[in-house]
Every structure is written in C-alpha cells, then in structure tokens.
Amino acid sequence: MVNTNTSNKKIVAIGGGHGLGRILSSLSDYGSQVTGIVATTDNGGSTGRIRACQGGIAWGYTRNCINQLITEPSVGSMIFEYRFRGNGELNGHNLGNLMLTALDNLSVRPLDAINLIRDMLKVSMVTPIDLLMVKFTFYKRSNNLIVHLFAFRKTNGFSY
Question: One Pfam match, by short name (predicted)?
C-alpha cells in the first residue's frame, strides 16, 4: 500500500509562467513543504517593460508564485498583488514587480529581496533559477530553429 500522506513531504517544483504558481498553490493545500524554483526569463507585460528600461532579472514569474502561495490575506498581500490602472506610465504595472525591482536597485541581492517579501507575506520558499539577467533569443534558419541564451552579469560596471 502506498502512503499518500503528503504532510511531511518536501516537494520542489521547477518552471515558470502562470502554471508553476498554480502547481505550487495546489501542492501547498496538502500541507507539504513546497519550494518553487522559478524561471527568470519573463519579458511580457509589466516585467517586460521594467526590464526594457531598468534591466535586471525578470520578477514576474517569481511574483506570481509568491502571490499564489499567500494563505493569509493581508494589507501587505493586497499591496503586493496590486496592478495599476489608468492611462499613465504605471498602467498595467504590478506593484509587486516594482517592489522587487526597487529592492534590486537598492543592491539587495535577488534572493534576499525575495526572502524579505516572503517573510512579509508568510509564504513558502521561492527562489529564482538564475540571479543574472537572462534573455532568450530564437532564430529560424531554413526550417531549423536555433536558440541563443544570453546571460548578463555586471562586474565592476561591465556586462558580459
């Protein structure tokens, strides 16, 4: 007979997009110790706009996973999940993305920034796959798909 008790299991899920957040949320319903290892390659919506003008790692998937793991709604969680509306520059931006970007700009290491937010919102472990600014570029040559991965790390003011 298989033991289906998941309350003492440690589960790690790796991925990105909106699917990983939903998986983590579902797994946390079982009382498991859940860790999400999240892709940092998002470049759409609010995250894409922030990356275009600020650089840095993509916070969107990480923010989404944190949102999905919130079990105790609070003013802090409502602020973190808030998305601006209107006609101005902030339209469509998610405040959580801006908060994580601000911490990154204050030279807080990405993992420390995530842990500060996690502690504030009382959520499970979430960690980025990479701490670099990563971009995927796809080229198509005569029906063959060529994939390029670019990683950027600032060292003494230089990127490579």
Answer: CofD
